Amino acid sequence: MDELLYIEPGSGSYIIQVIVAAVLGAAFWIRMSWQRVKAFFLGRKYKPKDKEEKKAP
Asked: Is there a contact between 17 and 24 (Cβ–Cβ < 8 Å)?
């Protein structure tokens, strides 16, 4: 039963890597979708903004 409690260093670092990637992925998604999330909770309609207008050369 004691052998089931052992976590190899490689497995432990992989678990930590997955946790860090999940947290950073969630933070990135929230940052990219912040206006949409804010509009949802405030009951407004989301209107995307064009930061740069593309002009034809």
From this structure: no
Residue 22, phi-psi category: left (phi > 0), alpha (psi -120 to 50), beta (remainder): alpha
Could you tell me which residues come within 8 angstroms of residue 40 by beta carbon, excluding any fewer than 6 positions away? 46
Cα first-last separation, the chain:
71
Alpha-carbon distance 30 to 28, whole Å? 5
CA dist 14 and 5 (Å) reads 17
pLDDT digits (tens, 9 = 90+) for 6-25: 778 888 899 999 999 999 99
pTM over 0.85: no
